[in-house]
Design brief:
The protein has 93 residues and is mainly α. Helices cover 59% and strands 6% of the residues. The chain has 4 helices and 2 strands. It has helices at residues 6-13, 42-54, 56-72, 75-91, and strands at residues 19-21, 37-39. It has a two-stranded parallel ribbon with strand order 1-2. Helix 1 (6-13) packs across helix 3 (56-72).
């Protein structure tokens, strides 16, 4: 378990459909059925992988969601956000 899951963002940037185990580190930024598939246990993960293999529309939807996730978490975006936070803090002092 990582602090954010950089390997997930790397896969997302490549437009790969993402399948992960339900871990707290993924809560809030990975959305089951939107930018990934999330399974609580081995049985659920097997089921989700089967869905992914059999359903090309689902694969495309997850690819699009993964690319959006990568774009939203791009370091340039993060840098802009941090700059805004720092500037607002400096204005308040």
């Amino acid at each position: 378990e990582e602090n954010q899951g950089m390997v997930i963002l790397e896969a997302a940037a490549m437009g790969l459909p993402i399948v992960v185990r339900d871990l707290p580190v993924y809560h809030g930024w990975l959305r089951d059925g939107q930018n990934c598939l999330i399974g609580k246990n081995d049985r659920e993960l097997k089921k989700k992988l089967g869905q992914l293999i059999k359903n090309p529309k689902l694969r495309q939807k997850l690819r699009r969601g993964a690319l959006k996730l990568a774009k939203d978490n791009d370091l340039r975006q993060t840098g802009k956000l941090l700059k805004q936070v720092y500037q607002s803090l400096l204005k308040n002092n």
